[in-house]
TrEMBL record:
Alphabetical list of InterPro entries matching this protein: 6-phosphgluc_deHydtase, Dihydro-acid_dehy_C, DiOHA_6PGluconate_deHydtase_CS, ILV_EDD_C, ILV_EDD_N, IlvD/EDD_N
Domain Dihydroxy-acid/6-phosphogluconate dehydratase C-terminal stretches: 415-616
Domain of life: Bacteria
Protein name, per record: Phosphogluconate dehydratase
An example Gene Ontology biological process: D-gluconate metabolic process
Protein's organism: Polaromonas vacuolata
Co-factor(s): [4Fe-4S] cluster
Pathway noted in the entry: Carbohydrate metabolism; Entner-Doudoroff pathway
Residues that hold [4Fe-4S] cluster according to the record: 165, 232
UniProt remark on cofactor binding: Binds 1 [4Fe-4S] cluster.
Amino acid sequence: MSAQTPNTNPAMHPVVAAVTARIKARSLPGRTAYLAQLHIAAKRDRSTDRMGCANLAHAVAGIPLDDRFKVVTERALNIGIVTAYNDMLSAHAPYQTYPALIKEEARKHGATAQVAGGVPAMCDGVTQGTTGMELSLFSRDVIAMSTAVALSHDMFDAALMLGVCDKIVPGLLIGALHFGHLPVVFVPAGPMTSGIPNKEKARVRELAAQGLVGREELLESEIKSYHSAGTCTFYGTANSNQLLLEAMGLHVPGTAFVNPGNALRQELTREATRSVLAITQKRRFAPIGEIVDERAIVNAMAALLATGGSTNHLIHWVAVAHSAGITIDWDDFAELSEVIPTLAHVYPNGSADVNQFQAAGGPGYIIRELLDAGLMHGDVLTVRSGGLREYTGEPQLDGTSLSWNPIGESNDLSVVRPASDPFSPTGGLKLLGGELGRSVIKTSAIPDDCHLIEAPARVFDSQEALLQAFNSGDLEKNCQAQGGVICVVRWQGPQANGMPELHKLTPPLSVLQGKGFKVALVTDGRMSGASGKVPAAIHVSPEAAAGGPLACVRDGDVIRLDAQAGLLSILLPAAQWAARTPDSMPEALRAANAMGMGRELFTGMRRSAMSAERGALSWL
C-alpha cells in the first residue's frame, strides 16, 4: 500500500481487534454505568433554564453587558475555558492571550465564552531532582479536581481545555471525563523552535557529571536548549500527550506541533472554538465521554507504542480510561506492543526533535500509516465530523482560510517510516515480569546490546545516595570489580514519596555505560518520556513501601534484566528468595518525605494511592 494511496477500509489487525474486544468486555459494567450517567446529564434543561435567578445572576455578573444579554436573553451557547496558563512554564506562557481570542471568535458565532477556572501546572524540568518533584505525579489528580471545580458551576454547553505538559493534559482529561456530557476540545500551544541538538545537551550533561565542565558551561548549554516560549523539543511526556490527543480525535487536526506565536497557530485556536460550537450548534452528539471509548483508548495506546512515547502514559492512560468507565492494564500495552511497529525516531529514541518530526510528517503521517495497516480504529467519533481520517492531513493557512493537505511520503526516513518498512516490527515499550514484580522499560532508546543486563545489585534508598556513590567513585569501583552494576533505587513509589522522576540519575549512569560497563536501573520510581540509553526497569509494582519485592533485594544479589524475554529476575535459589524478609522503609526517610515544600498537604494522597499499574489513582 503506497503512503500516498490510503486504504480507506482496512481490515483490523486481529491482535488489535482482540485486545479491544477484551477491554470492552472487561469494562462493560463500568462503561455502562458511566454512559448512563452521561445521558442523564445530557438530557437536562440548559443551564439558563435550569438555574435559579440568583445563581444565574452570580454567573454572569462579571462579564460584559453584551455577553450577559446573549446568555440570559438570547440563551446563547456558553463555552467554559479551563486554562493551565502561567508564565513559569514556557509551554503554558502562550496561553495568556488565548481566552481573549476564544471569546472574540465565540462572539462572531453568536456565542459566549468564560474562563471557568485555572488549574496548577508545574514543570518537571524545574523540579527535577528537588523536593518539589515529589508533588509532581499527584499534581495530576489536583488538576483533575481543579477542572471539576471549574466546570461544577454547570453553566456551560461546551468546554475548551488549555494545557500541554506532563501531568496537565492527563489531569484536564480526567477532569473533563467526569463531565462527559460536554463537548470538549483540547487546545495546544505548540513546541518552541529548535535550540541546540538534544544529543549535544546530553553530551554536556555527561561532561558535567564527570566534573569536566563547570556550572557556567552547563548553564549555557541548557539555556540554548530551553530558550523560548513553547514545549520542550524532545519527545517526552508533554509531546507524547499531544500525539495521543490527536490519535483520540480531541484536537483540531494537525495542531499538536505548530509553533506558538504565528498566524497558523492563532487560526487553529479560533478553529478549536468553531469546532466545539459546531458539535453543539449542529446537535451532532459527540460529547467527550462518547468520544473516549474503548477504541479511542486503543488508538492512543497504538500511537504511543508506534512512536516510543512516554512511559508515564502507562500510568496516566490507565487513570484516563478509568475516568471513562474503561479498564486497561499493562498486559494490554504489552500485547499491542508485539504488533505495533516503531514508526518514529524522535529524541531520546533518535536524534530528531519534534520540529523535525513535524517536518518529516508528524502525527498525521503516523496516524495515516497505522490506520492503513489496520492498527488503529477509524470508525470512531472525534471532535470533527470527518472522523479520524481528518487527522491525516496537515493544516495550511491561506490568508485567513484554513485547509488541510494530505500527508504524502515521509520527508525524512531517518525520522518517520512507513508501516511497511518500520524501524522495528514491534513497539517501543516492553512489560517486564519476574521475582522482582511487574515493571516497564522503554526499549526504543536502548542500544541493542543493552537489552540484556545481568549484574550484581547495588541497593540505594534514595537517588541522592546513588549520586553520592557515583561522585565518590565508589560506584565505578563496583563496576570495575564486577564488570557492571544494576542500581536498585527503592522507596520511590506513589505511597513512599509520590513517585518522582529520577532523571538526575541518567547522566552518571550514562557515564558508566560509556566506559564500557554493563549498567541498568531498577526502581519503583519513574523516568518518563526522556528515558535515555541506559536500561531502566521502572514503575516496579508492587512498590517497596507496600511490601513489594524490591524491599527484599540486598547488595550483591545478581539481577537479570532481559528486555527481549520480558524478564526482571533475581538469580537466587527459590527457597532462599522466599525466605527473605522485606526491609521496612527507614523511618527517618519516611518522615523526611512527609514534610516540607508542601508535601504534608499530600499525605492523604500518598496514603490512598494505588499502584502504578492501577494508574496511581488517589481518589478511590
